[in-house]
């Protein structure tokens, strides 16, 4: 899957940096930091729930500003609701209208759609994204728990059948066994379904999934440049360095 100059699913997992500034000023600082670290990441994620307090116009002015400034990179638009560990407080209808606007009017390449939002909303957003040529990343997060392996596999399968291009699960592990379950699920899903998958275990115990997930088939790894967007996120520069150890011929 090639977006701009980045081939997702080939070689090392691609490093995604999450922009989480709450204000235009904080976003400017993140863009400046990214400018000086251009070789440390491959993809930009706009975590638009970080500026949840803005009105619709200001929200998209900022989204468009980031997309323009970072236009060399594939752009993921994400609005993470607080039910899934984000700052987003909008209703389901408002969520749909935000994502729909981003798909139709912003220069984004990938849209992150929370899979357990109302089925009808998810299906409509998927259809719109497909029509616009925006890649569909279906996601589920749980900042408290890790489901059983069979449940993770069922979620990957449902996501695949509903049309996801990239399927992403991110959970909080209770222990190392949960981390192993996430990696097993990624491994099996990558082999079973003809699409890209991501599996993240958050927190300290899960850091290994961010560094070594690619060995098991994970195509993206999320890091930060300024502020962590989730527990256990590693600085993008460090991530890139660690990923080098998995390169062949070294
Ligand atoms: O889904 C993810 C992964 C993430 O939760 C993480 O654990 O790095 C960070 C989020 O910004 C992103 O949308």
The CATH architecture is Alpha-Beta Barrel
Number of helices: 8
Strand order of the largest sheet: 9-8-7-6-5-4-3-10-11
CATH fold assignment: TIM Barrel
Overall pLDDT level: 96
The ligands bound in this entry are: 1,3,4-trihydroxy-5-OXO-cyclohexanecarboxylic acid
- Uncertain regions: pLDDT < 50 for 5+ in a row? none
Count of spatially separate domains? 1
Strand content: 15-25%
| CATH homology group | Aldolase class I
Structural class by secondary-structure content: alpha/beta
Radius of gyration: 17 Å
Shape: globular
Order of helices and strands: EEEHEHEHEHEHEHEHEEH
Give a short account of the largest sheet. 9 strands, parallel
Q: N-to-C terminal Cα separation, in Å?
A: 26 Å
Q: Identify the CATH class.
A: Alpha Beta
Overview of the molecule:
The chain has about 250 residues and is an alpha/beta fold. It has a single domain (about 1-245), classed as TIM Barrel. The chain is about 40% helix and about 20% strand. The protein has eight helices and eleven strands. It has helices at about 25-35, 55-70, 90-105, 120-130, 150-160, 175-190, 205-215, 235-245; strands spanning about 1-5, 5, 15-20, 45, 75-80, 110-115, 135-140, 165-170, 195-200, 220-225, 235. The strands form two sheets. Strands 9-8-7-6-5-4-3-10-11 form a nine-stranded parallel beta sheet. Strands 1-2 form a two-stranded antiparallel ribbon. Helix 3 packs parallel to helix 4 (about 120-130), helix 5 (about 150-160) packs parallel to helix 6 and helix 6 runs parallel beside helix 7 (about 205-215). It is globular and about 45 Å long. The mean pLDDT is about 95. The chain binds 1,3,4-trihydroxy-5-OXO-cyclohexanecarboxylic acid. 1,3,4-trihydroxy-5-OXO-cyclohexanecarboxylic acid binds near residues 139, 200 and 222.
């Amino acid at each position: 899957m090639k977006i701009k100059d980045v081939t997702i699913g080939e070689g090392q997992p691609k490093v995604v940096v999450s922009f989480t500034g709450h204000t235009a000023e904080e976003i400017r600082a993140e863009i400046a930091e990214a400018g000086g670290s251009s070789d440390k990441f491959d993809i930009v994620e706009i975590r638009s729930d970080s500026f949840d307090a803005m009105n619709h116009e200001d929200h998209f002015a900022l989204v468009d500003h980031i997309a323009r400034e970072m236009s060399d990179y594939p752009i993921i638009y994400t609005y993470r609701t607080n039910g899934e560990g984000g700052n987003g407080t909008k209703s389901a209808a408002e969520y749909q209208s935000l994502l729909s606007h981003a798909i139709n009017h912003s220069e984004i390449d990938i849209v992150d759609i929370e899979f357990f939002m109302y089925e009808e909303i998810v299906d409509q957003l998927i259809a719109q994204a497909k029509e616009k040529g925006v890649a569909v990343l279906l996601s589920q997060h749980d900042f408290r728990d890790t489901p059983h392996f069979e449940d993770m596999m069922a979620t990957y399968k449902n996501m695949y059948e509903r049309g996801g291009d990239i399927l992403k699960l991110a959970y909080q592990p209770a222990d190392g066994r949960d981390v192993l379950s996430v990696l097993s699920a990624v491994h099996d899903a990558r082999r079973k379904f003809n699409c890209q998958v991501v599996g993240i275990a958050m927190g300290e115990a899960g850091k290994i999934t961010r560094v070594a997930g690619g060995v098991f088939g994970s195509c993206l790894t999320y890091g930060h440049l300024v502020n962590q967007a989730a527990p256990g996120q590693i600085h993008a520069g460090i991530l890139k360095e660690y990923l080098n150890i998995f390169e062949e011929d070294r």
